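thought: fold this chain, then report.
action: predict
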Amino acid sequence: MIFMNNKKNLQYIVCFILHTYAMAANASESECYGTTAHGSLKNGVPMPADGKNFISYSYLAQTLGRTYVHSKVNEIVIDSYAALAQTLPAKKYKYAETGFKEGGEFSPHKTHQNGLSIDFMVPVIDASGKPAYFPTHPLNKFGYEVEFDATGHYESYRIDFEAMAAHIVQLHKSAVKAGVGIWRVIFDPPLQHYLLNTQEGPYIKQHIKLSAKKSWVRHDEHYHVDFVVPCKPLPQ
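observation:
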């Protein structure tokens, strides 16, 4: 018998329930409609709560249904994490908001409406110099309220641009393998030069469209990725 005598046991139960729903949902491939800014989703699937080298930004958000994506996106993201677990086993990744099971308006975001958008919290290095999961909780609006400085530092954390670049590159490779692609990556323009000066910088310059203009929110604590998957017109 399982006794919910601590937070960890409760998280395991939530993960098991979400995984069960995900397996059932994956029986049917998702269908997306319209655009990321005006669309909907059929047969959306929830992202897994965690894995060997990644974790969700909030178990609460998952239970509220804020981590659903198109089945193809789910496949790509999981594949990218699996690949990184082999090539960069020490790195830690955290994904954030994605969308609702049926898509549609997803406040406070202006997109995330057809299952093809996903936010990733920036991977970080802690004060000891080790990879860490950046803290996301209600007091910092699950990480979205955090402001990194012009050099990518916030309190005792600094952005791990090498890990971030490796993730973006692997997302693109996993997308291509799945027969689709990446439309764009939105990340704070003033910080992009750090990303492009990494080992994977040349690949990103050649294959990834980075945001050129400042977005309505800064996108320094997270990077937003829109995937290219064939979608049907939004039903009238």
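thought: worth noting. The chain has a mean pLDDT of 89.
final: tokens above.
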